[in-house]
Design brief:
Layout: E1 4-8, E2 13-18, E3 21-26, E4 29-35, E5 39-44, E6 50-51, H1 53-62, E7 65-69, E8 75-79, H2 88-97, H3 101-127, H4 134-152, H5 162-187, H6 205-227, H7 246-252, H8 256-269, E9 276-277, E10 280-281, H9 283-298, E11 300-303, E12 306-309, H10 310-327
Parallel strand pairs: 1-5, 2-6, 5-7
Antiparallel strand pairs: 2-3, 3-4, 7-8, 9-10, 11-12
Length: 338
């Protein structure tokens, strides 16, 4: 049975409950109804939305997450059931791991996963240009070679805890990303402006879509981390900072390219148009793009020799982190196929 993600991107929506259904209304007119048993999540990406306490209670009982994401893609809040947590042992081991080699191995795995998925996406992009754009094909493979050289630097990283190696890892990650985004700029349609990657203050369509897509992905990663019984704030690659969910930022690294970057590049190259309004993606475009990202999460990839939906792989990876911390079973980052 297919479950449904409710994305609320229109100003003025009221989310209420009627019998066993979630009911969306705008100006007192019913615009959508979804039975609770079919509901997977509620993602609110706009202001001016009202939600009844009955809906929140029912979602808590059914284990349905409610997430709030800003216009710019920043994850603002999550409403989840109070009892949704794992074993205490997992969290204790997670905190202990910061001081030993488990944290080092996890941080290296996250960066390896990210770079491997960048390479996979670049190979995928090169494949479709081999015949009709030989110059661009060669440029992509030149950058692939450069990234592979940078990646090999990780073999020399040694340390007894994450503080010993974090800067070296971040340096490798940053240099690889610079090459990666150079290619992305070249494969986008000529009429699409892309000044380079901007995480904050973006006022172009590409960066706005990327940031918004990462916000949606972030909400899923956050849910997976919680369901695995992990602490969102106990990360390894990303340093501790008040209010910064470092582990979510760690795990999201190996999924950005497969879920969001590929969706942005694909939709723009298919000629899909997105409008900006006052520096943000306007409501209709936001809804359209959110649907594409959620569709991508439903698509299947090989993992451990079988095909799984990407959203399932994400949950499996979070549980693998927990298993590694508790039992020492090696954590292998997810790498997409191409």
């Amino acid at each position: 049975m297919e479950s449904e993600s409710l994305v609320i991107s229109d100003y003025g929506i009221f989310i209420g409950k009627k019998s066993e259904r979630v009911v969306l209304k705008k100006k007192k007119e019913v615009i959508k109804e979804v039975p609770f048993f079919k509901l997977k999540e509620i993602l609110i990406t706009t202001s001016g939305v009202s939600i009844s306490s009955d809906v929140i209670r029912e979602c808590a009982k059914a284990g349905v997450q409610i997430d709030f994401v800003s216009y710019a893609g920043k994850h603002l809040a999550k409403l989840s059931a109070a009892g949704m947590s794992g074993t205490v042992k997992t969290r204790r081991e997670q905190l202990f791991a910061y001081e030993d080699e488990r944290g080092v191995k996890l941080a290296i795995a996250f960066v390896k996963g990210k770079i491997e998925n960048q390479l996979v996406l670049l190979k995928y992009l090169a494949k479709y240009r081999k015949r009709n754009n030989k110059k661009l094909y060669e440029f992509i493979y030149n950058q692939l070679d450069e990234i592979n050289k940078i990646k090999r630097g990780m073999n020399e990283i040694k340390g007894s805890n994450i503080d010993d190696i974090r800067q070296k890892l971040l340096s490798i990650e940053g240099r690889a990303a610079k090459k990666y985004w150079r290619v992305i700029k070249r494969v986008l349609p000529e009429e699409v402006e892309f000044p380079g990657r901007k995480t904050q203050g973006a006022d172009d369509v590409v960066n706005s879509l990327l940031n918004y897509g990462y916000g949606i992905l972030y909400s899923r990663v956050s849910t997976s981390v919680l369901r695995a019984g992990l602490d969102q704030y106990g990360g390894f690659l990303h340093a501790d900072r008040p209010g910064k969910p470092s582990l979510v930022l760690d795990l999201i690294e190996e999924f950005r390219q497969t879920v969001v970057d590929r969706t942005v590049i694909g939709t723009l190259n298919q000629g899909m148009k997105f409008k900006l309004s006052q520096g943000y993606i306007e409501d209709k475009s936001r809804r359209k793009f959110a649907d594409k990202v959620l569709e991508r999460l439903q698509s299947k990839e090989y993992h451990d020799g079988k095909k799984y939906r990407l959203e399932v792989i994400l949950q499996r990876q979070a549980r693998r982190i927990a298993t590694y911390l508790r039992e020492g079973k090696e954590y292998i980052p997810f790498v997409s196929g191409w």
